[in-house]
Amino acid sequence: MSLNRSMHPRNPYKESPPDFNDLATRFPDFRAHCTLGNNGRVFVNFQEDGAVRSLTKALLKKDFDLEVELPHGCLVPRVPQRLNYILFIEDLLKLNQIENNVIGIDIGTGASCIYALLGARWAGWKFFATETNTKAAEAANANVVRNRLGHLIRVIHISEQSTTLIKFTFCMCNPPFFESCETSKVRFIGGEVAFIGRLIDESVLLQTQVSIYTTMLGKKSSISVLCRRLSRIDGVRYTVSTLSQGRTLRWVLAWTFLPQIHLENVRIPFVIFFRKVSLLFFFLSQTLICSARNVTWTNQRAKRRADAKLNTPAMKRMKFSNSDVGIQVSMGVGDGRDSLSNSGNFESCISIPNSYGRFDVHTQAYFPCPVRPSVLRFRVIHFRENCGISFEYIDGYKPGLYQLLQFLKNQIK
Hints:
- InterPro entries: METTL16/RlmF, SAM-dependent_MTases_sf.
- One of its GO terms (cellular component) is nucleus.
- It is a single chain.
- This protein has helices spanning 12-15, 20-26, 28-31, 49-64, 79-95, 114-123, 134-146, 191-206, 221-231, 276-283, 300-310, 398-412; strands at residues 34-36, 42-44, 103-107, 126-131, 153-157, 168-173, 210-217, 237-245, 248-256, 287-292, 347-353, 359-365, 376-383, 388-396.
- It is of the alpha/beta class.
- Among the domains are: 4-15 and 72-256, Rossmann fold (3-Layer(aba) Sandwich); 276-296 and 374-412, no CATH class.
- Strand 11 (347-353) and strand 12 (359-365) form a beta hairpin.
């Protein structure tokens, strides 16, 4: 499922995704990795490293006037995802009214030096880009010189044991996600949790030398571990935001030791536009009590497969021969005075002659059945001022409410 609708609202790729036809016309290197379909559309195999490399170079040149060389064996960045991170930091700075003399540090900039290049070109920030790999540092410095951004970006080669920081507005980091990998820059003992854990420990020593610490997370399971680690530190405040692009979901963890820095309102909102639904909300009461007697919002994939089988042509479906079955039913008779109770079943049979010389027979019977209890009961509250909806659990199967909320989110997306 594409996550482009949840992309940062100021990301230009949200409303205008890359046009492969146009890129193939402009850039011969990218055109060599394209395939023309029968419908005239250009297709790209994103599993091929060379195709992703040429696409990244084409987008950086076309949209940001950046000429970047990406050596083989180094990580190839995705431009929309990297730009999302830059926009997140820009939101943080605007929230705290930090506009002048912005100096950031990119820890582990990589051979592309993409964060520093985008930050300098997009927002005019100054950067210190650090890198432990000698070849990657040389390639990053060459990219800075190639784009004449040496007055804004300084690439520094450091040892793995030291990450000396001075006074910075923010720091950013795209850590190694995996514990072991052949590709440079994505391998670190202990994975991203250990890498960011070391960054958190260093931030405790540096405190306010960096106004805002940020790092990207590639695994959702890392969020709770790192947040627990931050919660044990005195005087620190933190927030987690989501970065969505294409079919990839990433998270950004930000924390600060400065009491005047605001982090609360920096989360990227997920905006939902109601059309006919907004008119429905106008007539609905503010609070609804909902009761579910059956769980109908789970196993959606199995239901779709079953529907697909039912919708197959009639020639392919199995046909059953018709058969007439006679059934005789014997019903108990109650006292006839309390037909709407459990004292017994009430039965009445009336025969009325019709105009054809026959009789129309009408039979009525009452079968008392216990009412099936609700599987889940919850309260839905509508906030008119911001079109918000709140779900409150009342009783029943509590995990069912979380399943229902996830089902509704999937339907909206």
